[in-house]
Design goal:
Elements: H1 10-15, H2 24-28, H3 30-35, H4 42-57, H5 61-66, H6 73-83, H7 91-95, H8 102-115, H9 122-133, E1 166-169, H10 172-176, H11 182-193, E2 198-200, H12 210-215, H13 222-235, E3 239-242, H14 245-255, E4 263-266, H15 267-276, E5 288-291, H16 305-312, E6 318-319, H17 338-341, H18 343-358, E7 364-367, H19 370-383, E8 388-391, H20 392-400
Helix pairs in contact: 4-6, 11-20, 15-16, 18-19
Length: 409
């Protein structure tokens, strides 16, 4: 018997028939640009999804008259292989002339495939790590704030306070990956310098649930959400801020409806505000910088201008805009659980995108996402040299300090 269509909305089922086969999404897809394999092309995945669902469920009157033809397990397995070779960056949807919500379709299709047991086995490891340790990297969660121990002048409370006006939600990657722990180190110093009453959660912080959403395992995130919301309520915070765009996007869309009285703000938005209010002072810098739009901050959350307001206010600096940018900006390869499912493809995408930024002639590539920084650093190190790479919080800290180097790590 055909399975139910509970993983898809009515709108999505209609969108399956809306594709005009113009190829715009294929031209926009960074994964396809890297693989040149038909299965990774968004239009091909859409058409195959439509074919298989119609064959099983008889979604047209003609199919019902003829009877639904059988679909082999192999056909679904082939689709599953390609469905997870995608970063969920949303670039395909931005290019679609009939505005099909392709990213939402990919998420629903992943849920469908998980229900069928057709997904990369490595995603089970991520799910189990989050279940057991409350973080995607499977480290003891009591070590979530260990990065504070390596700071030269951290306060005695380690930035963990019982109550605060603002919570800084650090995220799994920046909490546990040494390659990017300099991002929360920089951000807490900026919050302190601006006189903000804030706290981090330490081991009370659980994964936001984005890796589970991206894996097609939405139901698994409910307990995480309940815990994180209750923790914010206990602290009495009026604002939650994030340096991770995926955490920010997840909180806005999944948590936000249950936190109507709490402001959710990304670090770029907060930094732009603090600089505009004069609470953070920037010194002269002759740096030539370019900026990468993280997919979950730009296309998937609609925030393009706040980071540019920060960079355009660098005294003496030069901001070099890469092409393409904003809604057409290139992906780092690190989103959508692709690094778990196909690390080779993820790394290839990072190297391809990094080349576009190096071509600007900038000294420093600035991004606003710890995963983007990780991917670009790995791609640069593979080449042996290249452009400096900083998170925007790191850059602002460097140019606001009285002493220290203005170079990039």
């Amino acid at each position: 018997m055909p399975r139910s269509l509970d993983n898809f909305s009515i709108k999505q089922l209609l969108e399956l028939d809306a594709c005009t086969r113009c190829g715009a999404c294929v031209e926009a897809c960074d994964a396809y640009a890297e693989t040149q394999e038909a299965g990774t092309a968004p239009a091909a995945r859409l058409q195959e999804s439509r074919r298989l669902l119609k064959a099983e469920h008889g979604l047209s009157w003609l199919a019902r008259l003829r009877g639904s033809p059988a679909v082999s397990d192999g056909e679904w397995q082939a689709l599953a292989k390609d469905a997870f070779r995608c970063t969920l960056c949303g670039r395909c949807g931005s290019a679609c002339p009939v505005t099909i919500s392709l990213r939402d379709l990919w998420l629903s299709m992943r849920q469908e495939l998980v229900c069928r047991g057709l997904y990369p086995e490595k995603l089970d490891l991520a799910r189990d790590a989050i279940r057991q340790q409350h973080n995607v990297v499977n480290y003891p969660n009591e070590e979530r704030a260990m990065w504070v121990d390596y700071m030269a002048a951290a306060p005695a409370d380690g930035y963990q306070r019982p109550t605060a006006e603002m919570v800084y939600f650090v995220g799994c990657v920046a909490s546990f990956s040494p390659a990017v722990q300099s991002i929360p180190e920089a951000f807490v110093q900026l919050l302190t310098r601006a006189g903000i009453d804030f706290t981090i959660l330490g081991e009370r912080e659980y994964c936001c649930g984005f890796p589970l959403l991206a894996a097609g395992m939405r139901d698994e995130m409910e307990a995480l959400k309940r815990h994180n919301i209750e923790t914010i309520r206990q602290i009495g915070a009026k604002t939650v801020t994030f340096t991770c765009p995926s955490c920010y996007n997840t909180w806005v869309h999944e948590y936000g409806p249950e936190l109507p009285d709490v402001e959710l703000v990304h670090s770029t938005q907060l930094l732009a505000r603090l600089i505009g209010e004069g609470r953070l002072k920037l010194k002269d810098s002759a740096l030539r910088v370019t900026y990468h739009d993280p997919c979950d901050l730009g296309r998937n959350s609609g925030e393009y201008e706040a980071p540019r307001r920060v960079l355009e206010q660098l005294p003496g600096g030069t901001f070099l805009e890469v092409q393409p940018n904003r809604a057409q900006g290139l992906c780092c390869g690190g989103g959508g659980d692709l690094e778990i499912a196909d690390p080779t493809l993820a790394g290839g995408m990072a190297g391809r995108t990094l080349g576009a930024f190096e071509a600007t002639g900038a000294e420093v590539l600035v991004t606003a996402c710890q995963q983007c920084k990780r991917m670009f650093q790995a791609a640069r190190d593979k080449r042996g040299a290249g452009i400096g790479i900083l998170d925007i919080a790191e850059l602002v800290l460097r140019v606001s300090e009285e002493t220290g180097s203005d170079g990039a790590s």
